[in-house]
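Re: beginner question about structure tokens

> Can someone show what the tokenized structure looks like for a real chain? I only ever see the sequence side.

Sure, here's an example I had lying around. Input first:
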Amino acid sequence: MAQLRYRQDLPPKGGYPGISWQRNLPKRGYSGMTLFVAATGIITGGFVVLIRHIRRQRQWERERFQARLDLLPLMQAELDRRILRGMKLFEEEEAQIMKDVPGWKVGESVYHADRWIPPVPEQLKSPEGAKKFSL
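And the corresponding structure tokens:
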């Protein structure tokens, strides 16, 4: 060991070359501003389509409601005809059943009111009339 000389490891003459420590990544994709503008445009377009759809749906709903209002008198007339037909059947049956009871008035209302009260469904159906008439 005494014969070996100690030798220091030294840099080469002129020094080591510089180390490139900065990022050198290739540019990939769109910039953040471009993505932000595109996303804003897509969202705005979606809201425009949604608002148009909601307005169209409301318009259809208004048309349906108006059609229902327009048909209401016709439907009420049909219901009134059904009620009158059922009341006639009920009164015919009542007259047949109560013919032997003195002082009985057929079709007289059990309600003592000065306005018309629609009959309850039980007044419109009878054993024979139920076959002829149904609500």
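Each token stands for a local structural state, so reading them left to right follows the chain. The two ends are 123 Å apart (CA to CA).
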